[in-house]
């Protein structure tokens, strides 16, 4: 009987033992690309924070809950950036953070995983799903992936000359 109790306890503690990491804002990049009048406009977001639980041997137990600061938007054009921080775009005064939370992580093709979760921008929540890779680094992981969203799903930009499709690229170091 005592042996069974030890086995059961070890199973529960093993599941609780999944490694937990924090995204390293200075070492990570969150970039985007969108067309405006037919030309690509690129930019980035900063202020990455949150929690990541990840073990490549058990991707189904992984969780991601991360945010970026909407007010850090940077397209290398100060006037445009101020406009994007305004009410008709990101409205950073009212909605200072953009959040991405996993609902399911699973194995994908060899060497990659599939993220499924919820993206919240301006209190609009939409499901996103995308493949990503996880490479072990000193004391953590480097996660790389990307996805496309429709800006109108998040009430960004209204009727504008910019494309509806926005591409997001993630390169996140978590330790």
How would you characterize this protein structure?
This protein is mainly beta and 175 residues long. It has helices at 2-16, 78-85, and strands spanning 20-21, 29-36, 39-53, 63-74, 97-107, 113-121, 124-137, 140-150, 162-174. The longest helix is centred in the N-terminal third of the chain and has 15 residues, at 2-16. The protein is elongated.
Would you summarize the structure shown here?
The protein is mostly beta strands and 175 residues long. It contains 2 helices and 9 strands.
End-to-end separation in angstroms reads 40 Å
Count of distinct strands = 9
Main sheet: which strands, in order across?
Answer: 2-3-4-5-6-7-8-9
How many helical stretches? 2
| Largest sheet geometry | 8 strands, antiparallel, barrel
Order of helices and strands: HEEEEHEEEEE
Global outline: elongated
As a whole number of angstroms, the C-alpha radius of gyration is: 19 Å
Question: Which helices and strands occur, and which strands form pairs?
Answer:
Layout: H1 2-16, E1 20-21, E2 29-36, E3 39-53, E4 63-74, H2 78-85, E5 97-107, E6 113-121, E7 124-137, E8 140-150, E9 162-174
Antiparallel strand pairs: 1-3, 2-3, 2-9, 3-4, 4-5, 5-6, 6-7, 7-8, 8-9
